[in-house]
Amino acid sequence: MIEDTLIEDTLEIENKSDNKEIVKKYLDKWYTYRDSKMLEQEYALSILFQHFYQNNNLQNVLVKVSCLNDFYSTNIRDTYSVAKVIYQLNIDRRLQNGDLSLVDDIAAETEKKCKSARREYSFASKYCSFHRPDVYPIFDSRNEKVLRYYRKDISISPFTLRKSYKDYVKIINKYKEIFGLDAFSYKEIDRFNWIFCNLKNEETN
Question: Would you give the end-to-end CA distance of the chain in angstroms?
Answer without folding.
Answer: 11
